[in-house]
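Bench notes, afternoon.
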Amino acid sequence: MIPTLPAPGCDDPCNPGPGCPLPPPECGGGSGETLDKKKPAGKITVWDSNLGMEVPVKRTRVVARRWFKIDVVYTNDQGEFKCNKRFVNKVNILVKFLNNNITIHGLRTPRLWQMWFPIKKGIGIYSGNLSNISYRFNQNTLEPHSRTNRNWWAAQTMNSQVEFNEMAAANNIGGLPSFLRILLTGWANARGAGSAPMNGHRNPQIVPPLWINYFVLNPAHTGFASTLNWLYNGILIRKTDMTIGYDKNLQSDQVKSLIYHEMAHAAHYNKVGDNWWNELVNAETYEITRFGLNGAQSPYGIGDDGEMSGRIALAESWAEHIGRVMTDTKYGTTSSAQYNQGEFYENNSPVIGLSSHLNLLEDFSPNRVSDPFRWIPYGVYYDLMDSRNDYNFNAILPIDNVSGYSSQKCFNALDNDVKTIPEFKTRFLSESGFNQAVVDLFFEYHY
């Protein structure tokens, strides 16, 4: 499971690391204090559908308010919060999905002004003993588009940012940029999909309209003409780093896999910089233009567009590898069934001892002609690491006589002058030592 590591960067204002600003006055006192019944305190959790239990919502802002008296604190890694100010009468408690390194916005209705502010949830008005407040964010499986479901995704996104940085540090791969602005949308053309254009960090901040149509708001939704025009020209989209389409009924591990995937893109951007990422966003927008908003080949294409396809293959394969490996680390054999390349994957099936997420990577084949994205080799990184030769079990799978490498070695080769899978292979071999079996493995993936 996730190792216990210090909080990276300055994302938790109440528990800053070395070199970070001192805690502001709004942060609560130490855990050894005797609780004052008039100082709001308690715990914020979110339901985890795989673990079948509530888990803490980490490093998230909690606001206590009555008229002009306001107190702002943050949950710790146990989901606990503690206010400094006393509220003798009733107090309104709100949860806002932000901290120093992440802020989550939402697009659920045409009320555009809501997008300017982080998603918030008033969890109740309390009086009497205020020292034992609790609230749990629950999934709404009957109405995926609902505000309840959006808040459930937001709570898991807050946790994902902490978990990603912890697991990235444990694996010695790059962490996230210092600040992320994430948009949860219920109107994307691709439901349950995400993107990481990194608009708030890269320069120039080019936001093609078709990218907005695909990842933010499908123009087929009637009555949204003014919304689309506002989005096309709006500064908020030019500051959005990541989008997540939340209006799909997924299990917690599937939500985390999607978010970890997009965060792996953000960490990749952090290493390669603006020019590399500008070309990637342009490449995927070109493929959407080429194949249409509803084309089965959107947004990646069919791998025949030279360096554009090369960037897509490299970025998407790496992000999918990291997303699946991190989800396996988080959930292991509590993972839900996964579907890919026309196949279902479960824990211990088809490979005993692997979770559904690792089975998906291990069973990936570049030879399944029904998969339009089989040219994106997201199984190759796990094949570099594991000791199992896929070909011995299924003739359609690649011959894999390689083992012993790591995600760290792969990440080290993702330099800003590495734009395609062949260039990645060359850099990987130059940094890790020539190995003919590695050459042969990439050949099996048709690279």
